[in-house]
Amino acid sequence: xxxxVRSPGSRPAPSHVAxxxxxxxSLFATDGRPHPLQEALMVVTGVLGVLxxxxxxxxxxxxxxxxxxxxxLLTGAYGQYISKTTxxxxxxxxxxxxxxxxxxxxxxxxxxxxxxxx
Length: 118
What we know:
- The protein is an all-alpha fold.
- The chain has three helices and no strands.
- Helix 1 runs antiparallel to helix 2 (62-82) and helix 1 runs parallel beside helix 3.
- The chain is elongated, with a radius of gyration of 20 Å.
């Protein structure tokens, strides 16, 4: 196996690499650069996911939960596609999951247009 799990610092950084960082061993290690678009999409996906999940618990809020869930799924999918770090991917998966649950429960309670278009 070419890739094995090693403890942090067990392998010295190559001398030919400029500005080599030592291994931190953290699951949520970042690359040290700002990613404003990804972070904004993380916040939007998280807020929409919580909104969809909570509003899905109420039968009469199916329009809110289904639309918030759908938009949360779309923003989360795009954010997952352009994410750069493990932390961002983790946050996107949490937002996508809660958006998906809210979307599906909203669809079960009446859908995107239930009661509005007859």
